[in-house]
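Let us practice reading a record.
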Amino acid sequence: MTDHLIVTDEATMRVIRLRRPEKKNAITQDMYRAMSDAIDTAQNNPEIRCIIITGGSGVFTAGNDLEEFLHEGTSNTDAPRASNAVKFLYSLAHNVKPIIAAVDGVAIGIGTTMLFHCDYVLASTTATFATPFINLGLVPEGASSLLMPRTMGHQRAFATLVMGRTMSADDALIAGFVNVVVAPGHTEAEARKVAREICRLPAEAVAISRKLLRTPPEDLTRRIDQESHLFGERMRSAEAVAAFRAFFSRKKA
């Protein structure tokens, strides 16, 4: 476990809370591994009926910790595919428990793409969603190239994934990947209400119905693998190296 992630079981729900506020909850490899473990260990636990993922008040996550991510991604040819980030995505793909996301503040990169693996998403009025992969010379991840067009149509997915446009909470509600918009500071409390509602339903019927609604795991992992391979290639491209250098130069300035 990592100090930057808190996992608690509350009655019939498991709450996974990102806790790295000084870095806007940027996700490290240790955090990915801990999130993956929290999801995996819930699968065969009949006491856990629902999972909540939250970043707390004010921020969901700024996405990957780019300094660690760049080091991991360029260390050897197998790193992108074998990384804990991909393990986390596999855990999402194979998960059978309803997942609720409570998004208050920024959701960047995987902070947005993971939401398409969730079953119910609450966002605060101050939430924003962005997938700036192209700006870094990269490509989409998390099976987002499969799930986002299916959810909100090709044109919106193109504007988000390829053009890197930021979406507001209201935009996300209209696009169909946010269920409800609430006041800042209230997403986690409202997520618990939704979780309790789901947990009161017949568990087997929920599981079967959810499976019917979801994209099959084998389709998701096939696209995750395809994206990961291309992502790894792009990490070493001249475009990506130049984009990362420019990013860190701006950061130091």
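A brief commentary: The chain is about 50% helix and 15% strand.
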